[in-house]
Write a structure and sequence with these properties.
Layout (H helix, E strand, L loop, with lengths): L19 H13 L5 H10 L6 H10 L26
Amino acid sequence: MAGKGTFTDRRRPGRPCTRRPVQALIMRMARENPTWGHRRIQSELARLGYNVAVSTVWEILHAAGVDPAPRRADLAAVPDRSGPRDHRV
């Protein structure tokens, strides 16, 4: 007796994986642009026509051990203005 032919046992649950060329492009962008974070990489991918979520870019970078760039890398260069101020002119 033949089955119903639905092939439901062959399907995987959830979304399909991100294609390897897209993953490689994400890693290349992160390597060549170390100041870019996952949001900037995602926006550049969108400009190129790749529809990838920001969280997907973050997950790929996180799995590869790449830390996102800090939002302000030059915070140490900002002078400390926490001292007393005299507002009189």
